[in-house]
Amino acid sequence: MSWDLGIFEQAVRSYAHFQAPVVHLKGPGTNVLGDHFSPVTALLAPFYRVFPSPVTLLVAQALLFAVSAVPVTRVAARLLGRRRGLAVGVAYGVSWSVQRAVDFDFHKICFGVPLIAFALEALLRERWPAAACWAAPLVLVKEDLGATVAAIGVVLFLRGRRAQEKVTPLALGLIGFGVLASAFALSVVIPEFNTSGSYDYWNKIDAEGGGPAPTILLETALRTLAWVLVPTTGLLALRSPLLLVALPTLGWRFVSHEEHYWGTDWHYSAVLMPVVFLALVDSVQRSRLSRRGYADQLPAAAAAAGLALCTALPMAGLTEADTYRKPAWVNGAEHLLDRVPDDATVEANIGPISRLTQRCRVLWIGDTRGVLPDYIALHEPNGRTPDQLVDYARQLHPTARYAHVGSAGGVELLARVGGGGQAAA
């Protein structure tokens, strides 16, 4: 998996060299701010300048998720006691969606998860200005998170009123800020940088052209909701108003006709995890105040459930010896791709992308829009003969000629003949 990792590395690489965040994988010269409004990724630029590698992004993502466990565990220990707080922290850290997100390429939501966690911790501790300050930067993570900021403002209003404190101006200000920031990003900023002058993802919620059968959507949505609420909180989180913060994310996912948004794969549920676990903390505290003793056992139950599920989740790989070995075929593929000189233009499919983006201009296969790449790098696990690959290159670029350079580890490399595409020895 290297699609999103390649996209974000191209953006961060541009930032690191004080350039506009151009992502050639989205089309030659495409400014990523016309795709999603995520200027927060520029924060990685100084680190990438020192360590120019996709690994830098993966390490940063893992660290940001790890940092998000701090406010979750800290406020749980403060409100429920040290042992229960530790149990909540463990349950959160090994939760299925956090694991899926860390195992995924890289995604900007890794910045949103700790911000949400710190904001909700502040709400539970009735530190209203701090909650607003942690929530506000979410609008720089992704254009839809302004709705989440507004939802945090709603919860701030509800909890402040319950605590009989005057937080209405702050809450209303946060709600308005979130709504206006999302509206501005969607209607002004993104269209300004988008070559079509619009927001490309509106078609994900446009039912025209046929969407999924409603019964399939309902079944998948209910399964996803069960995964979000049952093994994490035993449904007790439903007692907490903090769960309102999850509604915007669940809403845009379930109104979409893009099936990838509905399920439990990849990173899509990661921003929900600090919400549901801190809603659990709030619910356990409320239940204890009303003398419902069964709630006291839920933190330990959630930790046990999370650890048990690890056997079928990415963390299980940590117990396998092969996880720590670099296969010979990987070395072969890397050696082949090392023959592509720095700054070359390469057209590639999923496999080779993140092996090249740190030093080459990488375009997505079939989307070069008239640009003739110096090289074509393809991951071909089923294999095509060199002659078939040359024919495929001719179909992609009828005006150019490509020669087969070599193959290794399931990767095939072709170089443009007579156009500077000479592979390094």
Provide structural commentary.
The chain has helices at 3-16, 45-50, 54-80, 82-93, 96-103, 109-124, 128-135, 145-162, 168-193, 214-233, 247-255, 273-289, 298-309, 328-337, 353-356, 386-396; strands at residues 345-348, 361-364, 375-379, 402-408, 411-416. The protein has 425 residues and is α/β, with parallel strands linked by helices. It has two domains: 3-319, no CATH class; 328-416. It has a five-stranded mixed beta sheet. It is globular and about 80 Å long. The two termini are 28 Å apart. The model has no long low-confidence stretch (mean pLDDT 91).
Fold blueprint:
Elements (H helix, E strand, L loop, with lengths): L2 H14 L28 H6 L3 H27 L1 H12 L2 H8 L5 H16 L3 H8 L9 H18 L5 H26 L20 H20 L13 H9 L17 H17 L8 H12 L18 H10 L7 E4 L4 H4 L4 E4 L10 E5 L6 H11 L5 E7 L2 E6 L9
Parallel strand pairs: 1-2, 1-3
Antiparallel strand pairs: 3-5, 4-5
